[in-house]
Amino acid sequence: MRFNIAVLPGDGIGQEVMAEGIKVLKAVGQRFGHSFQFYFGVVGGAAIDQYGVALLPETLEMCRACDAVLFGAVGGPKWDDPKASVRPEQAILGLRKGLNLFANLRPVKVFPTLVNASTLKREIVEGVDILFVRELTGGIYFGRPQKRWSTTRGRRAVDTLAYSQGEIERILRVAFELARGRRRHLTVVDKANILESSRLWREVTEEVARENPDVEQDYFLVDACSMHLLRRPRDFDVVVTENMFGDILTDEASMLSGSMGMLPSASLGQGKRGRGGRLTFPTLGLYEPIHGTAPDIAGQNKANPLAIILSVALLLRFSCGLDEAATAVEEAVNQVLEEDYRTGDIMSPEMKQVGTVEMGDLVVSKVQR
Ligand code: NAD
User: Is the pTM of this model over 0.85?
Assistant: First the structure.
């Protein structure tokens, strides 16, 4: 099969890790007999320097016409002025909005070989395998009114947390579908003891849960969930939540694995509807490592490329429907780690330290086998 992939490396180590992601995709193509056509675009700080904006309309159009988007990272000290009207992260926001990407998936999996990289105890993190599903286009980051004004008693500001039934239903359907493909347990995280929008989430959950009786489902208040994530993270399978709670909880959970350089993410748009109103994959998605541009190590062949390589595995699974190829990439990463190869960020005594390019080559050699 042939797939069109939009490639947006961005800035800093985004450029370096992207080269390794592409190498792995090419190796997958060779081994499984698929062809990947790459369409490159400039985004973030690089685009600001070249075109004066973080994302060109033509780049967005190109992404729309592709099967998937592979994204590196954007930003850096050069473009860090918070008052600037043009900022690198506008590229990500523009892509999310322009491609209608409403479901952010963040798997947090602790590789057996890396349990010691976590700041938490081995017996807590061993075997952790959680899939977070964060709603990405609604909630308090986008609700109106959002403003600030002056009164006789000082300044005031307001943000609005709003959700519609439709927005809640579509993200829940994705979450139930994903739970069905895993351990069939879905946790809905909210603040239903305080927030009206959370009570609507619960009501809609009950309705969607009736369509999915084969998936066990429970609720957690966000404060309790943040505690349990550190106390007994192994008990979670799929966790679905609204935009801001998801933003915070996924960062907390990323620390279970110990390194930013290991965590992939996917942002998915509306899939084609299958029978019974269920979402079906493949669907258009944007895939990126969760880390940033790491200015402190950029250009030194030190960046860990495994997060983008694991993002490639998600791309194969969710946008190309190539499950076997996706698993092959994940197994290749696991094998390289089992053979004790490490980049600096996950290095420990007795291990063999390698750079970005060497790590990419090692994964490619395992995929080719
Ligand atoms: P960062 O993720 O870039 O770096 C945090 C720390 O983790 C640094 O010490 C870095 O060296 C290390 N690190 C990150 N990725 C690594 C990798 N693959 N291998 C080894 N070490 C790695 O976060 P930051 O320093 O807060 O931000 C730097 C820039 O990146 C900022 O301009 C920020 O806005 C941007 N950023 C972009 C994205 C994105 O594009 N999605 C996400 C986060 C931050």
Answer: yes
Mean pLDDT across 308-331:
96
The total number of structural domains in the chain stands at 2
Q: Last residue of a domain, which of 255, 288, 307? A: 255
Residues ≥6 apart with Cβ < 8 Å to 261? 289, 291, 303, 304, 305, 306, 307, 343, 345, 346
345 lines ligand 1 (CB under 6 A): yes
Concerning whether 247 is annotated as a catalytic residue, the answer is: yes
Ligand 1: does its nearest atom lie under 6 Å from the Cβ of 304?
yes
Tell me: the pLDDT tens digits for 209-228?
999 999 999 999 999 999 99
272 tagged catalytic? no
pLDDT at 277 over 50: no
Q: 20 in helix, strand or coil?
A: helix
**Cα–Cα distance for residue pair 59/69, rounded to 1 Å:** 11
Q: In 3-state terms, what secondary structure has residue 176?
A: helix
CA dist., res. 191 & res. 359, Å (int): 42
Do residues 102 and 137 lie in contact, with contact meaning Cβ atoms separated by under 8 Å? yes
Q: CB of 177 within 8 A of CB of 214? A: no
Cα angle 271-47-267, degrees, rounded to a multiple of 5 = 20
What's the half-sphere exposure (Cβ side, CA atoms, 13 Å) at 318? 30
223 tagged catalytic: yes
274 and 345 housed in the same domain: yes
CA atoms within 13 A on the CB side of 117: 24
Please tell me the distance between residue 329's alpha carbon and the centre of ligand 1 in angstroms. 24
Range of the domain at 222: 129-255
